[in-house]
Design goal:
Elements: H1 23-29, E1 37-41, H2 61-65, E2 71-74, H3 84-93, E3 99-102, H4 106-111, H5 121-128, E4 138-141, H6 151-160, E5 167-170, H7 175-178, H8 180-192, E6 196-197, E7 199-201, E8 218-224, H9 229-246, E9 251-258, H10 264-279, H11 289-292
Helix pairs in contact: 9-10
């Protein structure tokens, strides 16, 4: 993942912003008696990217991955609309309790740029629902140059999205966040429709880093910089999530990327261990070859 990549991450101020003034209100008004649900995973499961993760001879990569992690941010669905049979295969390859968080196909987000999205949403939903109870929150990621001047397309998309299917929206153009009127309008429409506002933490795009939740879901896409600062950044997220849970947060969906994905599982294992301690959880800590073999180099 190259989004927000910088050559000198040590020069970046990675301090998390203060919470938006309305985040605590949203958590207090959307609180439920449901137990805390926490899903932490990577973006991909293929061997080529996740080196030092699969034991030698592993053939069923998804089968192994899904027995180490409880979820996957399914980026593959961005590039094409998979047939329903493929979703069914993924469903049957994974254990009970595993969840997929698929990205909406780029035909809707990037090629059509939400134009006439009502024509394409039903087919996408029909295929994706083949994941049944293993379907987590779907997410829409817009192009970097998709601007607020096209807010009418966002409204149309939201109005045509089925309310029973959870979704999170990610915007990357800076004007969605640096113009208070635009930002407030966006936050309001997401909150009114119980849709999550994706939080993106990446080195080179601190301008879109925000702390505004719009429902009882923290959908966080963390992009490590392949730098030792990745660990302290994750420590800061544990502290912030602990705060939000104390305010009523019930759903944490945290996905760990890196510019070079090779050690995403190692970062994930570190983060899960910290979360388990901070939130009294018992999430499985994925095993990596770096952990099992002292001769295998670790991240730094």
């Amino acid at each position: 993942m190259k989004f927000g990549k910088v050559e000198q991450p040590e020069a970046i101020d990675f301090t998390l912003p203060q919470d938006h003034i309305d985040t605590e209100r949203v958590l207090s008004t959307h609180t439920t008696s449901d137990p805390l649900q926490v899903y932490v995973g990577c973006a991909k499961w293929n061997k080529q990217d996740l080196k030092n993760f699969y034991p030698r001879g592993t053939k069923d990569e998804l089968g192994y991955y899904s027995n180490q992690f409880n979820c996957i941010e399914l980026n593959a669905t961005f590039y094409r609309l998979f047939p329903k049979e493929q979703y069914e295969k993924w469903y049957h390859k994974t254990p009970e309790g595993f969840k997929f968080f698929p990205k909406i196909t780029n035909n809707i987000s990037h090629l059509k740029r939400l134009i006439d999205s009502e024509q394409y949403i039903p087919e996408y939903i029909d295929h994706t629902l083949a994941l049944k109870e293993k379907l987590g929150t779907i997410f829409l990621q817009m192009h970097n140059n998709f601007q607020p001047k096209n807010f009418d397309r966002v409204d149309n998309f939201i109005n045509n999205w089925p309310s029973h299917v959870p979704i999170a929206l990610e915007f990357r153009h800076t004007d969605w966040f640096n113009d208070p009127q635009v930002a407030d309008r966006l936050y309001h429409v997401l909150e009114e429709n119980n849709m999550a506002n994706v939080l993106v933490d990446t080195a080179g795009r601190r301008d879109i880093m925000h702390m505004r939740l719009t429902n009882n879901e923290a959908f966080i896409r963390f992009v490590g910089a392949n730098h030792e600062s990745d660990y302290t950044r994750l420590d800061d997220w544990v502290i912030r999530l602990q705060k939000w849970v104390s305010q009523g947060l019930k759903n944490i969906h945290f996905f760990i990327h890196q510019n070079v994905e090779v050690e995403s599982p190692l970062l994930s294992a570190y983060f899960i261990q910290k979360l388990n301690s901070a939130l009294s959880l018992d999430l499985k800590i994925p095993q990596t070859l770096s952990q099992n073999n002292p001769d295998t180099p670790t991240l730094f």
